[in-house]
Amino acid sequence: MASGTNKLSDATLRKMIGRESPSDNFYADGDGLSIKVTKSGIMTWLFAYRLGGRETKPQRLRLGNYPDMSLKVARERRDQCRSWLAEGKDPKYQLNLATAETLKPVTVEDALKYWIREYAEDHRANVERHKAQLEKHIYPYIGDLPLSQCETHHWLECFDRMKKEAPVAAGYVFQMSKQALKFCRVRRYAISNVLDDLTIPDVGSKQDKGDRSHTDDEIGQLWQASQQLKFKPYYAAMLRLLVVFGCRSQEVRLSTWSEWDLKKWVWTVPKEHSKGGAKIVRPVPEAMRPFIENLHRQHKDSGLLLGEIKESSAVSAWGRLVWKRLGHVEPWSLHDIRRTFATKLNDLGVAPHVVEQLLGHIMPGVMAVYNLSQYMPEKLVALNMWCERLELLAGEHDNVILLQVRK
User: Fold this and answer.
1) pTM
2) Looking at residue 189, what is its pLDDT?
3) At what angle do helices 71-86 and 91-103 cross, to 10 degrees?
4) How would you list the strands of the sheet with 43-49, edge to edge?
5) pLDDT-based confidence at 160, cuts 50/70/90?
6) CA–CA distance, 315 with 332 (Å, rounded to integer)
7) What is the phi-psi region of residue 333: left when phi exceeds 0, alpha when psi lies from -120 to 50, beta otherwise?
8) CA-to-CA distance for 247 and 224, rounded, in angstroms?
């Protein structure tokens, strides 16, 4: 300990309480800390410092009153102020920030909503799903807790509660929360590291990547069903678009007519609807143009491709049952249609980079930086060829059914 530091003692300070004097007096403790005793006996801790060296004017920062602030706490505040000075920070400003955080701390809900507002709304297509899951599984239980006081076990109670019914969803919400806390930490909005040591298996389950791809007969039946009355118009139209474009269901579900150029026949998915955060440009194959025009006549007043926006949960729930309604032996999801699309186009000889662009995947490596081509002619040839293949497969499915009936 440096000489001349910590000169005061609790015994000395207690004797000064309530003592009146003809004038204000200052008693130094060392390293900038002193206590001011007014004529009426009020005792105030002060920290003296300079921001620019000895040639600058000294400043005094009020830390608190004694005995409300003990000698021990006053010395801790002094040491903190000296640390801020060493980092080139003004102790007065830093102390105000710390006091504000203490009086009105950032809560768990504040932090997650900050991430939603400052990041997710601009970079996540399924931000509404994020909001719904946080409002259901996190905010009611720990949303009001100060983030700095929310321990790992508080979060685990939320994830364990989800895990019983939906382990994959628990892993999804964990991953989202972990990213949100890191975002807040990097931007110095709020600090919490309590999720850093956890992984998805600690809180739930990873989503299976899956390897389900449709057979030719299944995809033919699927194409045929999308044109008939097996499903309600909204879902029939969605299914048809998913099969033709190999797109994500959210790209169709959120699509507006402003994305569709019916003169150049181009569909441009904006980055806010794209999972990868980049726009996706697809030509409309010739066989689909009458269908798109018909949708436009039906829904142009709504501004929406399908006339309404259904919740993602409703679309997912419907998609999980399509295989049963079509009598398929193995289950599949709407996302599996993308795998089928990619597989069939590659089988038809379409170049892999064209398939990847149609899927809306980010090009790998330096291609993403230097190769900005949209390959529109190649995409149009691929989609025209795919539509012809779909009609052929639907016809082959009809022949199979006819043969079964004759037998």
Assistant:
1) 0.57
2) 85
3) 120
4) 25-30, 33-37, 43-49, 59-66
5) very high
6) 14
7) beta
8) 19
